[in-house]
Amino acid sequence: MNFLLKQKDKLILRPKIIASTATVKRATQQLRALFARSTNPAVFPAPGPDRKDSFFSKTVPVTDANGRIYVGVSAPGRNLKALMLRVSLAVMATSQKLYKEEEKLLKQLPGSDLGDNPVDPYMTLLGYFNTIKELGVTRRLIEEEVTSQLTTYNLRKRFKGDISPRYAKRKIDNIPLELTSRVPTSEVSETKARLALKFSEPRRVDTALATNMISVGLDITRLGLMVILGQPKTTSEYIQASSRVGRDDKRPGLVIVLLNPNRPRDQSYYERFQFWHSTFYKDVEATSVTPYAVRALERSLPSICIAMARHINPELSWAKNAGLDQIISNTAEEVELRLGDRIKRACPGDKELAINVQSQVRNIFDKWSRLAIEKDNQMQYGKEEGEYPSLLHTPLDPDLEELPPIHREFIANWSLRDVEPTSALIMTRMYELEENG
């Protein structure tokens, strides 16, 4: 964006960058590395003399409005699978009993809506997991154990002296919904829409399992119950994930954290559970920002160089003008200088970095010019542009297997996520069973 903006009265009109987050540390260093901005960021709303009341925002204590309750559970001698089973059964059977009791009271009130049941936020169990493997184990647990045991849980779990059962039997859908990277985007959107449905509606959700995908972007005020299996890797992830429940100030959230006593880190968090939760914002880690790492440059630098060249020289902007070798060579120097200047501003303490990146830029333009000469100056940027050979390819383009290795230098990603091509397994030797006798 800075490169595309023109100069006006010898001043560069730079875009204003606006970011929003609840957990951040070392923002100034991160902005310098990512956006090459050396000035200190302006915080809005400004803290003012009283951090609890800045006019634009106000800290509301839990004595005035509902918040979230965190409960830590650690069971020595039990594995996390058994702990997850028992906690899931207890909270789901208890919520069912309370829901039925409130439903009876609502029916007695004239003009009341059954959908306004105060227990509704706790009828959907949202599970949060650190790995896909742990999520898969819990999914199987819900499908086979939780679904069947809930139907008789009220009969088995009774204590001496109980006049009425503490739990209620419950029938749930044995297929929990998922919010993970392995689920298509269309299904994720549908799942989010269903999570907002009240429990009295037909397509309500009983259980939903998620990974760190829900740390941001899941703003459903209805959710009120979450079970976290194992302490998340970072404090910021823990704060963001657990904040998905209890977003309605009229309905507090309940977060149950299952900690493994056999893991020293989990045990440490359990031993200082109350103190850490009262001060966990000060433990937020600074996110590492490395836009000029070797892997990042390998994936992004070729497409950035080509995009800059097309904007610098209008003759290269046309879709079928990717093979003008002389113009390509003449444009390389300006791209090299622009990128080198930005790196010097972003990382002033690393003098070798700008030199190394400029060397890579020269190498990219040399290979681009060589390809243009090999194709008799008849090249286009993308496959869809026409009949000429393409300069750019996607990471999963099947044509790359038949093209010379130099074409792999010009892979343009649709995004900078770490997405790799699928690895094919080829069996080189067949084993046959030998019949005895």
Please characterize this protein's 3D structure.
Helix 9 crosses helix 10 and helix 9 crosses helix 11. The mean pLDDT is 85. By secondary structure, this protein is of the alpha/beta class. It has two domains: 216 residues, 3-Layer(aba) Sandwich (Rossmann fold), CATH 3.40.50.300; 107 residues, no CATH class. The protein is elongated and about 90 Å long. It is built from eleven helices and eight strands. Helix 6 links the parallel strand 7 and strand 8.
Question: In a nutshell, what does this entry contain?
Answer:
With 437 residues, this protein is of the alpha/beta class. The chain is 36% helix and 8% strand.
CATH superfamily name of the largest domain?
Answer: P-loop containing nucleotide triphosphate hydrolases
Q: What name is given to the CATH topology of the largest domain?
A: Rossmann fold
Rounded mean pLDDT is: 85
**Termini distance?**
76 Å
Low-confidence stretches: none
Alpha-beta classification? alpha/beta
Shape verdict:
elongated
Radius of gyration, CA atoms, in whole angstroms: 29 Å
Tell me about the largest β-sheet: 6 strands, parallel
The number of E-state strands comes to 8
